[in-house]
Amino acid sequence: MAKLEEITVGSIVFGIIGSERVIIVAVNWCGSSVFEVFFKDIQGNAGSQWLYRENEGRLVIEEKNLPWSFDADSDTLRLVSEAYRIHLGHLFDPYLVVHTSSIDPLPHQIFVVYQEMLPRLPLRYILADDPGSGKTIMTGLLIKELIARGDLKRCLIVSPGSLAEQWQDELYRKFHLRFEILTNDRIEASVTGNVFSELWKNLQDFFV
After folding, report:
1. Which range of residues forms the domain containing residue 54?
2. Mind listing the pLDDT tens digit for each residue in 51-70?
3. 150 and 102: one domain?
4. Which of 45, 62, 68, 148 is most buried, by the most CB atoms less than 10 A from its CB?
5. Looking at 44-48, 61-65, 135-139, 195-199, which range is the least confident one?
6. Which residue has the higher pLDDT, 144 or 1?
7. Do both 201 and 103 map to the same domain?
8. Whole-model pTM?
9. Are both 52 and 147 inside the same structural domain?
């Protein structure tokens, strides 16, 4: 049984002319309880008929199962589309992070990150000890670019103990990257002996 309101243009309906299936071409309402439908049968012959509320008992709408049909939730589609657009942002803007961070990088920093390190992915670890080169800037650029590409979930930065808080502050202030400082006290207080698994709260955890 189908309600009259469910019969729309493009619907495939049984019961309008016997048990034959027809495709609705147009609908012309006359009031709220009766309308005239224009249809085509499987041979392509056109026809029309008046339908009333008492006819609803014999009407059946065929469920559409076309490969191009789409009935997903619109809010979910919008969210997934936006997430995928952001994920591919680096294809449209090769220097995506440079334009979305509070930094003014030097030419050599951009060259190292975008011409040397990113093309060499995957990288399991990086050693950097050149003083005064702006390692914090290059590290933040690399980490955010990897996150944008979906290539980074966890990251550990080994820095001199006296500079750990400075690294933490600069990465958050300039790149909005939130790092936890991994101390001996935190390691010793670990119940399981694996502080990393205990602090695995989100999809990504970062430590200095």
Report:
1. 4-61
2. 888 888 888 887 655 556 66
3. yes
4. 148
5. 61-65
6. 144
7. yes
8. 0.54
9. no
Looking at every residue in the chain, the average pLDDT score rounds to 82
Per-position DSSP letters for the chain, written without gaps between them: ---GGG--TT-EEEEEETTEEEEEEEEEE-SSSEEEEEEEETT--EEEEEEEGGGGGG-EEPPP--TT-----HHHHHHHHHHHHHHTHHHH-TTHHHHTSS----HHHHHIIIIIIGGG---S------TTS-HHHHHHHHHHHHHHTT--SEEE----GGGHHHHHHHHHHHH----B---HHHHHT-SSS-HHHHT--SS-EEE-
Residue-wise pLDDT for 62-112, tens only, equals: 765 555 666 677 888 899 998 888 777 777 777 878 877 888 888 888 888
59 within 8 A of 14, measured Cβ to Cβ: yes
Residue type, 126: I
Contact 64, 8 (CB under 8 A): no
CA distance linking residue 153 with residue 202, whole number of Å = 9
**Among all chains, which residue has been given the structure tokens 């049968």?**
41
